[in-house]
Write a structure and sequence with these properties.
mainly alpha
Length: about 70
């Protein structure tokens, strides 16, 4: 069965069933990529909160590009 054939059926699913299908597909993709998606695992997420070097770079770029509306 192709994705084209599946799409109409997927549209007719309930919200809960759509979520189950998504969870299944993400799990299958993770297995193919050999990624561990267990509930007890920690997954690092980058945050700009302490990206001081990036902030300095942005300030330098903004200072170099002073806009003169006149």
């Amino acid at each position: 069965m192709t994705a084209t054939e599946l799409l109409p059926t997927l549209r007719d699913l309930t919200r809960a069933d759509k979520l189950r299908v998504m969870q299944f597909l993400v799990g299958e993709l993770a297995k193919e990529e050999e990624i561990d998606l267990t509930a007890t695992s920690n997954y690092p997420v980058w945050s700009p909160h302490t990206a001081f070097e990036a902030a300095d770079t942005l300030l330098v770029a903004l200072a170099a590009d002073k806009y003169d509306p006149a």
